[in-house]
Write a structure and sequence with these properties.
The chain is mostly beta strands. Helix content is 14%, strand content 37%. The chain has one helix spanning 12-25; strands at residues 2-11, 33-36, 66-71, 78-83, 86-95. The protein is extended and about 45 Å long.
């Protein structure tokens, strides 16, 4: 398994959704889930000259890749208040084989 450090900035209402996902859906972070692969998903496909590949309607072709992960640490992910309604949430994810 690869361990991936991860950090995101969330508004207070998003933090509530995150906590519900972590605590209830993932049973305190114990269950695996899929997420977009942050280094490739959504980026355009390029040819050998670094030109964006297009479909027949001139729409860029994008990579769509997900990864299977679970939280690597026990306990609620670390959170830091950045502003009154904005938080930084940091955690480590374990990338699981598929």
């Amino acid at each position: 398994m690869d361990i991936i450090p991860f950090s995101t900035q969330l508004k207070r209402w998003q933090l509530g959704l995150f906590d519900s996902f972590y605590l209830e859906t993932l049973k305190k972070g114990m269950l695996p889930f899929t997420m977009p692969e942050p280094f490739t998903d959504g980026y355009p496909m390029l040819d050998e000259e670094q030109n964006t590949l297009l479909d027949e309607n001139d729409v860029p072709l994008l990579f769509t890749e997900t990864m299977l992960v679970r939280f690597a640490d026990d306990g609620l992910p670390n959170r830091t208040s950045l502003q009154v309604d904005t938080f930084r949430v940091s955690f480590r994810l374990a990338r699981l084989p598929t």
